Structures are given as C-alpha cells and as structure tokens.
Amino acid sequence: MNFRYLNVLAAAALLCACQSAPKQTTITGTLTGIESDTLIVNYFPVSDLSRRTIHRDTIAMQQGKFTYHLANDSVPMEAWLYAKPKPGEAMALLRANTGVVLFPGETVEVNGAVNDFHIKGNDFHRAYEEVLALCKPYREKMDSVTHTITAMQAAGTLSPDKLDSLRQQFLPVYEEMKGVKKDFLRRHADEDIAVYLLADLGRESGDMLSLIGEKARKGPLASLYQAMEESLARQKAVEEAHKNMVEGAEAPDFTLKDLAGNDFSLSSLRGKYVVLDFWGSWCGWCIKGIPDMKKYYTKYKDCMEIVGVDCRDTEEKWKAAVEKYELPWLHVRNTDEADITVKYGIQGYPTKIVVDPEGRVAKIVVGEDPAFYKYLDELFK
To answer: What are the tens digits of pLDDT across the range 326-336?
Structure first.
C-alpha cells in the first residue's frame, strides 16, 4: 500500500475541511406594509457613479421576509429594493424604496417599512443608521411635497404656478438636509460613511474631497473615492473645454468606431458641413427630436452630413436605437477611453454642433431647440 499517497489524500482532506466555503454577499430581512409578495432589486458597484452597470432582479417574499444573494460579490455594491407595483401603479409605488450598501462576503439585515427601515451590519451601517435618523424629518417634509405634486398631476390640477410654489417648498428642505449630511461628514471624515456621503453631494463634493481622511480613502470604499476623484477631474476638463468651444474655434478631430466596427474620423468629412449630434437612447429630448432631425436630413443631405455621436449607451442599446428609429445618417459611439465629450465640453443632451467645411465650429445648440433648424434654413437657403 502506498502510504505516501494516503498521506497526501489525508492532508488534502484536512485542508479542505479547514477551509470554509466562500461567503456570499447577502441582503435579508423583513419589510412591512407591502401588498406585493415580490420585491424588485436594482444593484450596481458603488463606484459606478453613472449607473451604467445596473443589475435588476426580483426577490420572492413570504410574509414580508426575504433573502437575496448577489451574483457579484467581489466589490462593494449599492442595492435598492422596491415593492413590485400593481398594473398602472408603477410610479406611485416605486417612490417607496430601500437603499443599502453591501460589502463583499457580508450579510446585511433590513427591517421595517420600505421607506422607513433599520439596518444591521458593520460599522458603516451603524453610521448610516445615524444619518438616516438625522435626515428623517427632512425626508418626511420632502415626501409630503412630492406626494402633493403626484396627486395633483393625477387629478390634472397641477398648474405651472402651483408646481413652482411646491418646488420652492421642496428645495430649501433639501438644502437643509444636505447641510446635515455635510456636518456629519466633517465629524466622521476618517470613516467609510464619509466617502459615501461625499458621493451623495454630487457637484459640491469637489469642495469637500480633501476632507476625507487617509483611512477612509484607502478603506473598503476606496474604489468610490477614486471614482469621485476621476469624475471631478473630468468635470473640470469639460468645463475648461466648454469655455473654449465657441463659434470660430477649431473642432477637435476624433476617431471612433462606426456601426460596422470601422474607424471613422471627423477629418474625413473636411470640405462639407457636418452636424455632430451628441445623443443617447436614454435621452428623452434626443428621441423627441428625431422626427425633425430626419426631416431636415432629408431636406439638406446634399449640403451637409450628420454624425450621430452616441453617449452613455452600451453598444447593444446604441445599435438597437439606430435600428428602431431608422436613423439614416452616420453613427459612431463615444467611449470612456476616447470620450470626445470632454474635448467638446458637452454639458447637456442633445447637443448639436455644426462644423463648417474648414473644420471650424459654426454653431452650437444645446437641447432640442427650434433655433437649430432655423439656423440650417438660413445657412442653406
């Protein structure tokens, strides 16, 4: 008998016995006040500031109890739970939600109402509970205003003046709540919660980025901190380019992939008028303007070329939108690697930039504005 072989097997068995199975990232708990027996969960890496990689799933509940294991448990994730709406009640029910940060291999327990809950987890969640308690009075006031707006919309009684009045009630409360979060961030600048609160401040985060302590910068939410640093640097670059993107300036050349996967360069159209249309399938105003764009393309296609520059879409969504709306002009897809929206200082969608035959900016129109079509009529009359 080969005792050496048996010893190897024994050692391997002992090693396997000592190694516990890999932990899953889990969210569990009990949510009350939900008529549905199903939750909708949307989750994404906390570092995904643009929410481009959202995963959606459903969770079955039994008497309000649920347990869900995330498919991706290698990075910190942010998850939002919604009660599955009844037919025709989607907007009303989706206002109530539960948001929680999940760390790899850990379990978080959520108990309470969908929009008034308590979290059991690690130190981050204990700090987050404090923030929720501090913000609760402000959220209740904002929810009341939001409910009034929704009810008046449904009844057809929401006039522009009344909407403006309600906004004036909402915004000061929102600013007060942000002030509470800023104060908490300052008092806990070396904790993970500070990084999360910083991301919640959006554009204002740049002024407070330097307050975050080194421990928090390099902690479990380091990827979120890095994403904010990169986002703010990009924002500054866009703002600087926007200042220089004026009529008469040279239009930056670029090379992007077209629908067939071939390289397309703006300079290849030198000698023609070109309309750069920065758009995306997610942009409601971009889609709303398609009929007029198609009309004017047909009208002036002998005088100009349109290049649709798709932004913030996956390749699949981009191609599907081009096919669905039957867009007959040239198309390229902007990517994070090339990101020509930085070069062109794009701050809103759609943005249409007319480039003259010499390669200079002739006109910039932000939004779906009739002024763009009036300009084309005057240019090609």
So the answer is: 999 999 999 88
